[in-house]
Amino acid sequence: MNEINKSQIKLSQLLALVAVAEHRNFSEAALHLEMSQSAVSHAIASLEEQLGVVLFYRGRHGAHLTPVGERIKVHAREILRSVYAIEKEADLEKGLQGGVVRIACFRSVATHILPTAIAKFHTLFPDINVKITENDSFFSIEDSLRAGFADIGFTYLPSSDEFETWEILRDDYIVLLPPNSNLDTKEISWQQLAKLPLIISALTPCHDYILPYLNQAEYPLNIAYEIREDSTIVSMVGKGLGAAIMPRLAAEPLPLGIKECNLPVPLQRIIGVAILANALHSPAIYAFLDALRNTGNFAKKVAV
């Protein structure tokens, strides 16, 4: 009688054994394990060969455990439970079970970028809470990171070398035209823009982006309103009070009737995610950054 080589028994074989036993079918077990049916069949056949016993009766009505298969299944489940317990202990030590990830951001990020990343993160780490704080400006976001009130911050790039940063996206500034506008163009000229009352953001850094940009205009421009809230700006355009210049992400979703067009000269803001450089961060922080990366939002790491 040949001695069983215990080093040859694999967890994948035990997983296949339990899955086939539960589903009583190789194809359904394969679907459950996200493996091919041939891989599951090979795992069971290899395990039977290593153990020198038949684990399943195979027939037209599926697969059923033999008596020895039933007894071995009990031990296989105990082994798998122990493996899961080992993984859980490691996750607890690494901070991936429980705890909180604190994020400071501005509204357009909270609306358009974070929901997908948080959903992905909660699928992987359901016991870690995500706390979001919305801020008016990137200055307060970076202050929150410095003070330890936030772990991750969304800000404008480039930033200072205090932070390790990654680019998320480049957001174009656009012109919003009211429904009663006679203009129907994909790109507005300085001359056309000069004939309209303009609505811009009063908040930094958006305000600081727009004013120097408008100073290069070929015609004098009429800044009629400076407003703090993005939603108020869009609403004012909808009521025909003027044309707005604002980032596309901040303007969306556009109400019916409002038209958009490109500026005479392109203007962009670069949005990035930041953490304090040279600081200790929990594994949960890096796990959330990975979730954000896996949503397709990460563009690249930015050197500062």
UniProtKB/TrEMBL annotation:
Keywords per UniProt: DNA-binding, Transcription, Transcription regulation
Domain HTH lysR-type: 9-66
Membrane-spanning intervals of the chain: none
Coiled coil: none
InterPro entries the UniProt entry points to: HTH-type_LysR_regulators, LysR_HTH_N, LysR_subst-bd, WH-like_DNA-bd_sf, WH_DNA-bd_sf
Superkingdom of this protein's organism: Bacteria
Family that this chain belongs to: Belongs to the LysR transcriptional regulatory family.
This protein's name: LysR family transcriptional regulator
Organism this protein belongs to: Floridaenema aerugineum BLCC-F46
Taxonomic lineage from the root: Bacteria, Bacillati, Cyanobacteriota, Cyanophyceae, Oscillatoriophycideae
